[in-house]
Amino acid sequence: MEVDLEQTLVLIKPDGVQRGLIGEVIHRLENRGLRLVGANFQQIAKDFAELHYAVHKGKPFYDGLIDYITSGPVMAMVWEGPNAILAVRQTMGATKPTEAAPGSLRHDFALEVGRNLTHASDSSETARAEIDLWFRADDLVKWDRDIDHWVFEA
Ligand code: IDP
Ligand code: MG
Description:
This protein has 154 residues and is of the alpha+beta class. The protein is 39% helix and 17% strand.
């Protein structure tokens, strides 16, 4: 069974870790039907954070964002599934928690854009680049899940 699967990078940011929401985030992604293929719990250094958030360099919130993402450990994961990039961003909700759809994680657990719990890749190009930045190829697990044919159609 071969289906067109996307992979996407998910980070549970330091506020999510500190607030004990690792399980909640993973639970929601598992419930959605996505498949975990990599995970790594670590506290990143400033220069690594600057690589991850290079696209935001120069924006007014950039320095605060670098402080935020380096302020404690993060849970980095790769999740896989059909339309995984879009599906994960939908599960997370809009960047600003007060604009996030009810039922989304940021709606249900956050109030402020600067404490919005998670990161998720926003396109296939950024997903590839972010996964390559955070994970070595052989740290990603290629596996068949027994329920896959009940979640993935083709
Ligand atoms: P995203 O995380 O939903 O993809 P981006 O626009 O890529 O959102 O911004 C990256 C991160 O930068 C956000 O998740 C948020 O933590 C932070 N951020 C974005 N805009 C602001 C802002 O106006 N004030 C403070 N932090 C911000
Ligand atoms: Mg983004």
